[in-house]
């Protein structure tokens, strides 16, 4: 398995040569500013205690507070959160929002935990995290296997800790709204309209801009999406509404291929009923396996489609399968789905690969909107959120495209050059 942190460092070193960065700056950007680790002791429903390893990596805060999600997954590692926090720095920079990058995680399988055990784990994680976060320090959010409910438990625990620490009856007396400490919250606790679909929506705004550049007609453009969780579903749904043809989707068990195009909403309903999309050949208003066929997660990556959208986990396109990719375009909706070696192969094949730090930045952008709304105590409707999101994503795409055409390098290196340059400027300005 490719090491995501080594990949992140390798990418930085490559862009360092393009930008002619000095060694001191490069060394600073290679490593997280802070890395926190803990063993969380959680009481299980049996009455016994179980220990879970937890992490929080804070990469860089030269452009603003750290910002990044929290994931609950059996494969969480220290190197993974370090890599993801690094990529978050570049992601925030490339879309021009005033944050640096962070990321947290707990090694666990949430599917094997009861709701009460999940709540206790979430609260224990916040006890570990609370000294290191705050509205102007580090602002966590949901990530893989976490959601608004988990953010609500964490926020509640954070407020209790702060009340106890400052010995005040009401947290409002602190002068800073603690709701701004966490984003991706339920609407009832200061969440933002549009946050649920934000990552997918941002990706579709990028798809629209790319289609204009490459003269792709939606009705003739086929799309395959690996990963049918929140991000994959919303990308599929919103692209489908624009007339694009979604021909394949997959989940952790496998996928479904419907050459004439599937219905994303029906496919989600079917997945929720059957437990997997593998039985969901859903076209127009009917699900029937005569419309399509079951495929594996490896096969979906190698379909002959116009646009491939990896929206599951990292390192799914490697040097071993990159040569088999037949898509014209890849839009990375997962974090780090393409290894550096694969990136070069795709570039040689003239496949345009829009990197994660641009493609999936819609989520962190609307998280930024949520933070802004919490701090000012004034909330926007969904139309305003989507309008502001589109403005930011289109501007970021145009800046990326200009850099891509000027540098004549891979799309990833062009995007990194744009992002790293801004962080380096902030470091230099500070002196």
Structure summary:
The protein has 431 residues and is of the alpha/beta class.
Q: Mind telling me the CATH superfamily name of the largest domain?
A: NAD(P)-binding Rossmann-like Domain
**What's the CATH class of the largest domain, please?**
Alpha Beta
**Structural class, please?**
alpha/beta
Shape: globular
- Helical region count? 14
Task: Tell me the CATH topology of the largest domain.
Answer: Rossmann fold
Cα-based radius of gyration, to the nearest Å: 21 Å
The unreliable regions are none
Write out the strand line-up for the largest beta sheet, numbering strands in chain order: 11-8-7-6-12-13-14
Q: In percent, how helical is the residue content?
A: 40-55%
Based on the structure given, which CATH architecture of the largest domain is correct?
Answer: 3-Layer(aba) Sandwich
Total strand segments = 14
User: Mean pLDDT, rounded to whole units?
Assistant: 94
Largest sheet: 7 strands, mixed
Please explain how this structure is put together.
45% of the residues lie in helices and 17% in strands. It has 431 residues and is an alpha/beta fold. It has two domains: 32-189, 3-Layer(aba) Sandwich (Rossmann fold), CATH 3.40.50; 198-359, Rossmann fold (3-Layer(aba) Sandwich), CATH 3.40.50. Strand 3, helix 3 (78-94) and strand 4 (100-107) form a beta-alpha-beta unit. Helix 6 (198-214) packs across helix 13 (382-407).
């Amino acid at each position: 398995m490719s090491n995501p942190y080594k990949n992140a460092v390798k990418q930085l070193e490559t862009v360092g040569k393009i930008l002619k960065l000095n060694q001191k700056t490069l060394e600073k950007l290679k490593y997280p500013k802070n890395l926190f680790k803990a063993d969380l002791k959680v009481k299980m429903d049996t009455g016994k205690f179980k220990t879970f390893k937890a992490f929080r990596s804070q990469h860089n805060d030269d452009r603003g507070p750290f910002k990044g999600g929290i994931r609950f997954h059996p494969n969480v590692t220290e190197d993974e959160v370090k890599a993801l926090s690094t990529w978050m720095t570049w992601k925030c920079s490339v879309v021009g929002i005033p944050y640096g990058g962070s990321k947290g995680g707990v090694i666990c399988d949430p599917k094997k935990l009861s709701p009460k055990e999940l709540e206790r784990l979430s609260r224990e994680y916040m006890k570990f995290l609370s000294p290191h976060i705050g509205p102007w320090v580090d602002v966590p959010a949901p990530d893989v296997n976490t959601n608004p409910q988990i953010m609500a438990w964490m926020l509640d625990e954070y407020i209790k800790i702060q009340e106890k620490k400052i010995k005040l009856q009401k947290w409002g007396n602190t002068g800073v709204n603690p709701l701004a400490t966490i984003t991706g919250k339920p609407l009832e606790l200061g969440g933002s309209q549009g946050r649920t679909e934000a990552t997918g929506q941002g990706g579709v705004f990028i798809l629209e801009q790319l289609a204009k550049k490459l003269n792709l007609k939606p009705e003739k453009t086929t799309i395959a999406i690996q990963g049918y969780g929140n991000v994959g579903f919303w990308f599929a749904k919103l692209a489908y509404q624009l007339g694009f043809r979604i021909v394949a989707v997959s989940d952790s068990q496998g996928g479904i291929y419907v050459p004439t195009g599937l219905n994303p909403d029906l496919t989600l309903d079917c997945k929720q009923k059957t437990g997997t999309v593998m039985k969901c050949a859903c076209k127009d208003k009917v699900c029937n396996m005569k419309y399509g066929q079951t495929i594996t997660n490896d096969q979906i990556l190698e379909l002959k489609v116009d646009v491939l959208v990896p929206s599951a986990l990292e390192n799914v396109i490697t040097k071993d399968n990159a040569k088999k990719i037949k898509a014209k375009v890849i839009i990375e909706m997962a974090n780090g789905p393409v290894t550096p070696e694969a990136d070069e192969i795709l570039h040689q094949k003239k496949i345009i690969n829009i990197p994660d730090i641009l493609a999936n930045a819609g989520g962190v952008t609307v998280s930024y909107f949520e933070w802004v709304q919490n701090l000012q105590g004034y909330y926007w409707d969904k139309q305003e959120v989507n309008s502001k999101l589109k403005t930011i994503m289109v501007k970021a795409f145009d800046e990326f495209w200009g850099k891509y055409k000027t540098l004549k390098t891979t799309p990833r290196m062009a995007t990194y050059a744009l992002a790293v340059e801004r962080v380096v400027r902030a470091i230099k300005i500070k002196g």
